[in-house]
# Entry
Amino acid sequence: MAIARFPPYLITSDHRERCLEQLRSKSAPLEKYIYLNGLKERDSNLFYDLLLQNMKEIIPLLYTPTVGEACVNYSHIWRRPEGLYVSIEDKGHIRDILSMWPNTIDSRIAVVTDGSRILGLGDLGANGLPISIGKLDLYIAGAGIKPSSTVPICLDLGTNTQRYLDDPLYIGIRRKRPDPEEMDEFMDEFIEAMKDVFPSLMVQFEDFSTDNAFKYLDRYRYKYRVFNDDIQGTGSVILSGFINAANLSSAASGKPLADHRILFFGAGSAGIGVAKQLLSFFTMHGLTPEEAKARIWTVDSKGLITADRKGLQEHKKFFARTDYDGPALKDLVDIINYVKPTALLGLSTLKNAFSEAVVKAMAAINERPIIFPLSNPVNLSELEYHDAIEWTNGKVIFASGSPYFPVTYKDVTYEPGQGNNMYIFPGLGLGAILSRARHVSDAMVEQASIALASSLTDEEKAAELVYPRLNRIRDISAQVASAVIRQAQKEDLDANNYLRTLPDDVLLSLIHDKMWRPHEPTPHL
Ligand SMILES: NC(=O)c1ccc[n+]([C@@H]2O[C@H](COP(=O)([O-])OP(=O)(O)OC[C@H]3O[C@@H](n4cnc5c(N)ncnc54)[C@H](O)[C@@H]3O)[C@@H](O)[C@H]2O)c1
Ligand SMILES: O=C(O)C[C@H](O)C(=O)O
Ligand SMILES: [Mg+2]
# Structure
């Protein structure tokens, strides 16, 4: 009977084209986001098919930057349950709440946010769930994790954002965030319950405010299968882009790779996470850890970070300079003229912080300046791509956190890189899952980075890209996963002995075979 409700000339194979047309007929990105999530609910195979065939167009709608807008407005665009909420009011019986999730035994990856620092947008409370959903869509599209093995989680611990507490349609509990002791108790109960209820699960922490991001990573990383995407995933992806950028820059200047000098504008979880990972760039080129540290300068809202500053937060101490004792340096151009960096990396959430004077100061001291404005979403980016090209006369080596379109300047078309952890976390998670790693080591994160850096094709190298093209993300995730598996084996962290018996090429094709594809019988992830 149901079939009679379909139009007689409807050809199902055309439906992907029809959906694409419907999607493109909407002009506002948020409307497209709502449309796509509705489609996922109605026909998830069709949705992922569309996504896989149109990554470059659709990823920015499900993920950064549009997901930021979806989070800000989530209480108002909410349609249906899409993930798991665990609230501070559930303290004492979190295990019962988690046990209500279907398919707990087969679940493989959870992305967990507490909504306290969504992208650079601040404390969005219970509106943070779409960030977990967006990241998991990338696990599915980018690494072939089976949709039903993914668990998007938002911890509702209240919010300190008054406009949400005052909003009658706000979907979270109406209270301020807990003090550290209450939050620690909640988190300890949550993570232990996760381990019991989801025995094969790996947890990705996402968009926790900086202090808590560092704290819970340190507290849990060797006891549970967890990693923090903003610290480790970002560190890994930027190390990778930096390796390729430094090669391009040094080829132009003749400067040895170990002579690079890196200035971080922004010293939060992302800035410090990346700075720590970049130490290994220098140790790879023969410097000692102390010499490597001396190649890095950090800046926060008060200026160049020096060790003599009073009340310095714990995470800023490691890179605080001990070799500067002049008056506080606050202006970025002055800081550039003092440091003489070869690379300027922005993780500050400060829109347009890289002004014309800043970019020109970088271009004056470098043949090919490396400038990465990495803050998300795009309306918080430190630098627009067309400005970067124009102000450096096309010489800049550029990657941004959110996507930009290519720019044509003086008849040459330039292609930007996207330095976003989306190139790392799907493959890192996949590798950890397949090897059944007990935890994620620093060396696994570093190997992920090196695998990504080496994944450029000849054509991508000729185009001077620092990251591969997005439509190859499944190949890239497979290469990253393979490097992660081999490193887990080296450190004896793996429990899947079978993978040890496979030569590299067989391992790589097995990873590909394990990937879920829409409309196909389900493999094992
Ligand atoms: N590209 C990526 O893959 C990626 C990954 C993680 C985070 N990010 C982005 O990085 C940004 C920062 O994230 P976070 O977790 O480190 O946040 P955070 O709030 O902890 O850190 C922001 C840092 O910027 C500094 N800052 C703020 N205003 C400043 C100013 N006027 N001048 C100089 N410094 C200033 C702050 O002092 C702080 O050190 C966010 O926009 C986030 O979306 C990007
Ligand atoms: O979500 C992103 O696009 C990258 C990163 O995790 C961020 O917090 O900005
Ligand atoms: Mg994040």
